[in-house]
Specification:
The complex is a heterodimer of chains A (about 270) and B (about 550). With about 270 residues, chain A is of the alpha/beta class. Helices cover about 40% and strands about 20% of the residues of chain A. In chain A, the strands form 2 sheets. A 6-stranded mixed sheet of chain A has the order 7-8-9-4-10-11, with helices on both faces. In chain A, strands 1, 2, 3, 5 and 6 form a 5-stranded antiparallel sheet that branches. The two termini of chain B are about 25 Å apart. The longest helix of chain B is centred in the N-terminal third of the chain and has 37 residues, at about 20-60. The chains are: A alpha/beta (about 270), B mainly alpha (about 550).
């Protein structure tokens, strides 16, 4: 059996008394487009930070492409690309300077870094403002340059924390096409997003974290089947979930992490 | 008023949260220590100024108060530039999100200006002077208090006005270059004063003295002279003259207020200054990206980080400006006096270059002791996410700081040559040997402090570049120790009649320092990895 692209074992992270992530056992196979979901504060960003070496786990282990992240961090980082939550940009560089810089930090020679920079700027439609500093980019442009930086070295595993947040429909389409293409070339993508429609459309496999614990993991069909199986006894009590009904990811998510509270009785002053 | 008190409450809560950690408490302790030092300077100066003011007024030389007010004005304006490691102004852009009226915004900004050490010390000195005048002639107290209050407000507004306008001019390359050329021309012209005076001897001194007399007469049309005249007019009951001088002073304050409010209003409206501002934004020309720099055969990550650091520096007007401060100081001390009234530098020109180099080292504090401070906006995360060893990043940053220091020292050397005399070879070589010893030790400490107490800095803003106060104090203590050791070595070798031996000893010390630097890089890297969360959280904070 092939080694998974990402595997964690009892991954735990504490902040003082607070346990942000507890005993998470993730398994992402190579070539999967993997969605990592959870409500706000569930532990998504903490997990992705641990997986990318930005945060040390309190306990547990992480293996990426069969390298132990703790023992071989440089080898792991060479194989992965990251778009963290706040994008890790250097605002006082221009787009091309930034991509060149990132390429060379990831071990590309000067010529290759320069060539790929030109290609990526063209692809992301960012080549028109060569003198514009990254700090002056719009939020969507910053997302695109962060994404370009994450792929400049051709990573085998890509970690994306909310990659489509603030990106317009045109750019979003460009990014999705690029990601699908990477998947077709055998890369693995690990993505967190609050936009469940995007995850449903892109991802073949999903994991859901809630209050620091992994509460579901598998393909979309497996999750759907699991929720329907759980809901089956409830049918006898009047729940109108039929086995023929195909649940959306949003419905699956809400059933797993619990429904939303009604705001009607509260915040009455909002009018 | 409710909004202002809400802001005060917010800052109080932020302060309370900031002292919940050991680092925060250390920072507070350092601030208290620095505060005590400034209080000592403020109170001591106030007593001195009070006594001097009492003396002038009681002897009927009230117009001589101008001699006291000029140094106060110069201190108020120059100290924030000279001691940028102690000057800080909170970022006020966050205020714009609140429904704050322009008047409230203006008041908050002025209040931030009052928090500056120069305002605190200068204000105290003015209070001392007011009391001195009051004791000498109680009848003058109310009038002197009003005049000196307006003079104080003029200074508060003036220093903010200078910074805010220079900041605007330095943000874009074109205006930055114009300022650079103007500064160069000024620098080149001032260098002729001393040599001319020395070359043409006594006759020239008389001419200089005549110019000085004329300047002395014309100084009454400037704020310090106008303030002194306003008070003197009250004493001699020349009300018209007094009122005219006071109106002149108020006019200066009003002009500065107006100029300042132009910039404040622009910022209040959400102005966003940037390198690519103005017409350049509309340019849409595609250019093939240039390949990155190659730095003396250094590995890619080191060369790339070095390039990034230099590009950051080149785009940071205030940082560039702070590097020019040693030159400004050289000019300032050069024009201070000639002949019998010559200052220390003019009397001991051989010491100007080493002192200038030491000062350049001090000005490096905000860069080298808060080396990740400018990597805000998530930038610092990149160094931990990328497949590079952090030691390479630190080496690159230290190389960039060495480069900056070397350029600054070269400029100082040329400045000393032009303004004083060519630094003697022996002193130059000894200074360079001392730098080779001091820099590696300084970088080790700087790297550790950068990791232990990082502080978010904005390279594009004056007074938002300061390292943590505890870091600044520690760096000054270390430099005092290192430079003291250098001075001791040089002095001992001279005493024992073998001055060149000092160079050899300093080179040996430099060798040890380099070995120590190399040996400690690994440990520093480990420390950085252990504290990466603090670094990322502190520098990534919105």
């Amino acid at each position: 059996m092939d080694q998974p692209a990402i595997a964690t074992e009892s991954l735990t992270r504490r902040f003082g008394e607070f346990i942000a992530v507890q005993d998470v056992n993730l398994r992402v196979e190579a070539g999967q487009f993997f969605g990592f979901l959870g409500p706000n504060g569930a532990g998504k960003s903490t997990t992705i930070k641990m997986l990318t070496g930005l945060l040390a786990p309190t306990s547990g282990s992480i293996r990426i492409l069969d390298f132990d992240l703790n023992e071989r961090p440089i080898e792991v980082k060479r194989q992965i690309g990251v778009v963290p939550e706040d994008m890790a940009l250097f605002g006082r560089l221009t787009g091309s300077e930034y991509l060149n810089f990132v390429g060379r930090m990831y071990g590309l020679d000067r010529e290759t870094a320069s060539r790929r920079t030109a290609e990526l700027l063209d692809f992301m439609q960012l080549a028109d403002n060569p003198k514009k500093l990254v700090m002056d980019y719009s939020h969507g442009m910053q997302k695109k340059i962060a994404m370009a930086a994450a792929v400049i070295h051709g990573p085998k595993v890509l970690f994306l924390d909310e990659p489509f947040e603030g990106v317009d429909a045109v750019a979003s389409g460009t990014l999705k096409a690029m990601l699908q293409r990477m998947i077709s070339h055998g890369a693995t993508i690990f993505l967190t997003s609050h936009v469940l429609e995007i995850v449903e459309r892109l991802c073949s496999h999903v994991a859901i974290i809630h209050k620091g614990r992994l509460v579901a993991q598998g393909s979309l069909e497996e999750l759907r089947a699991g929720v329907q199986a759980q809901a089956a006894p409830a049918n006898d009590n009047g729940d109108n979930l039929s086995s023929a009904q195909k649940l959306t990811l949003e419905e699956i998510f809400l059933r797993i992490v619990g429904g939303s509270q009604s705001a009607q009785e509260e915040l009455s002053w909002l009018g | 008023m409710d909004r202002l008190s809400a802001l005060a409450a917010m800052r109080w809560q932020m302060f309370r949260h900031s002292i919940e950690t050991v680092r925060g408490r250390l920072e507070l302790l350092s601030r208290i220590l620095v505060g005590l030092l400034f209080t000592l300077l403020a109170v001591g100066g106030a007593i001195g100024y009070g006594a001097a003011a009492w003396y002038f007024v009681s002897r009927g030389h009230t117009q001589y108060l101008a001699f006291l007010l000029w140094p106060i004005l110069l201190f108020w304006q120059i100290f924030p530039i000279m001691a940028s490691a102690f000057s800080e102004s909170p970022d006020s852009s966050y205020l714009l999100r609140f429904p704050l009226s322009y008047q409230s915004y203006f008041l908050v900004r002025i209040f931030y200006g009052l928090l500056d050490p120069a305002s605190f010390v200068g204000g105290f000195w003015l209070i001392g002077m007011t009391l001195g005048v009051g004791v000498a002639a109680p009848v003058l107290l109310p009038g002197a208090a009003v005049v000196l209050f307006v003079f104080g407000m003029f200074n508060v507004l003036f220093t903010q006005m200078i910074f805010i306008w220079v900041e605007k001019w330095l943000v874009q390359r074109r205006t930055r270059e114009i300022i650079g050329v103007l500064f160069f021309l000024l620098f080149m012209s001032i260098q002729f004063i001393g040599p001319l005076a020395n070359h043409y001897g006594h006759g020239a001194r008389i001419a200089v003295a005549q110019i000085a007399t004329r300047l002395s007469t014309s100084q009454q049309f400037f704020p310090p002279g106008a303030s002194a005249n306003a008070i003197a007019g009250m004493q001699s009951l020349e009300w018209h003259s007094s009122l005219a001088s006071f109106l002149l002073l108020s006019g200066y304050a009003a002009i500065v207020f107006w100029l300042l409010s132009i910039r404040f209003r622009a910022q209040y409206r959400g102005e966003n200054l940037s390198e690519t501002g103005g017409h350049e934004k509309s340019k849409t020309t595609k250019q093939a990206p240039r390949a990155g720099w190659s730095v003396l055969g250094a590995p890619g990550p080191i060369a790339a980080t070095f390039e990034k650091e230099i590009r950051y520096l080149a785009r940071s007007g205030p940082l560039l400006f702070s590097l020019a401060v040693p030159l400004i100081m050289l000019v300032f001390f050069r024009v201070q006096g000639t002949g019998n009234h010559a200052g220390f530098f003019a009397r001991s020109p051989s010491l100007v270059f080493p002192i200038g180099a030491a000062y350049a080292l001090l000005l490096l504090t905000n860069l080298s002791y808060n080396t990740f401070g400018g990597d805000t906006g998530g930038g610092v995360q990149f160094f931990f996410a990328a497949p590079v060893r952090l030691r390479d990043v630190l080496i690159a940053k230290n190389l960039a700081h060495t480069f900056v220091f070397a350029v600054d020292v070269l400029v100082i050397w040329l400045g000393v040559w032009l303004l004083y005399q060519r630094p003697v070879i022996y002193v130059t070589l000894l200074t360079l040997a001392a730098a080779l010893f001091v820099l590696p030790v300084d970088f080790v400490a700087g790297n550790v402090f950068s990791i232990y107490s990082p502080k978010k800095a904005n390279p594009g803003k004056f007074r938002q570049q300061r390292a943590a106060q505890v870091t600044v104090l520690a760096s000054f203590a270390l430099r005092a120790l290192l430079l003291g050791l250098v001075a001791l070595v040089v002095w001992l070798c001279r005493e024992y009649g073998n001055p060149w031996l000092a160079g050899l000893i300093l080179l040996l010390l430099a060798g040890c320092a380099f070995a120590g630097y190399a040996a400690l890089l690994g440990r520093t890297e480990k420390l950085a990895l252990e504290r990466r969360e603090v670094l990322i959280a502190e520098l990534g904070r919105k």
